[in-house]
Amino acid sequence: MGQRGTPEEELSAATSVVGELFGIEADCAAAAGLLVAIGDELGHALRPRPVAAIIRETKSNTLLAMGPKATKKFSPEQIAGMENHRPGGRDTGHLVVTSDEHKLLLDPNMRQLGNVGVDAPSILIRVRSTEPESGEWQFRHEGLEILYFVDDENRALLPHYENAHRESRVYAQAIAEGIRAGVDPIEIAARMKKS
Question: Which superkingdom does the taxonomy of this entry point to (predicted)?
Answer without folding.
Answer: Bacteria
